[in-house]
Amino acid sequence: MSNSSWLESLSEQDRENLYINFWKYKDMSHDEIRSAIIGGLHFLTTTDLVGLHSEISRVQIEHSHKNEIENGKT
């Protein structure tokens, strides 16, 4: 089985967890992760970038809610 078909066999949630754990495993700094993401943007289509913008907004909302809970503002 090729690497791409192995990845394609994973559910979207499993792939997301794999990628999250990859960053942790590599012990990459915040700046290294940011640089890797920015470098990868150049390989995405306009549709991919729009979808990514939506995902970024979702994560920002999650972080905001988490911060509100931690600060007792809910």
The shape is globular
Give the uncertain stretches in residue-range form: none
Largest sheet: none
Order of helices and strands: HHHH
DSSP E strands, number: 0
State the end-to-end CA separation: 48 Å
Which structural class fits the helix and strand makeup? mainly alpha
Count of helix runs: 4
Mean pLDDT, nearest integer? 85
Q: What Rg, in angstroms, do the CA atoms define? A: 15 Å
Tell me roughly what share of residues is in helical segments.
Answer: over 70%
What fraction of the residues are assigned to beta strands by DSSP? under 5%
How would you sum up this structure, described in words?
It is a single chain. With 74 residues, this protein is mainly alpha-helical. It contains four helices and no strands. It has helices at residues 3-8, 12-26, 30-41, 46-70. The longest helix has 25 residues, at 46-70. It is globular and about 45 Å long. The termini are far apart. The mean pLDDT is 85.
Provide a brief overview of the structure.
The chain has about 70 residues and is mainly α. It has helices spanning about 5-10, 10-25, 30-40, 45-70.
Provide the descriptors you would attach to this structure in a database record.
74 residues, mainly alpha, 4 helices, globular
Describe how the helices and strands are arranged:
Elements: H1 3-8, H2 12-26, H3 30-41, H4 46-70
